[in-house]
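It is worth pausing here to work through a concrete case rather than discussing structure prediction in the abstract. The textbook approach is simple: state the sequence, then state the predicted structure, then interpret. We follow exactly that order.
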Amino acid sequence: MNEIIEKEQILIEDMICVIRGVQVMLDLDLAKLYECVNGTKDINKL
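Step two, the predicted structure:
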């Protein structure tokens, strides 16, 4: 009953993209990082 669930290790450095010389993170990666239930929908509401 008491199971240990191992989560995948998320490296933020791998999520950072450089677009036109600016470091950005995509909403898909932010949703994964913050464990949003509704995915990018929750991120884009703000």
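Step three, interpretation. The chain has one domain: 12-45. The radius of gyration is 14 Å.
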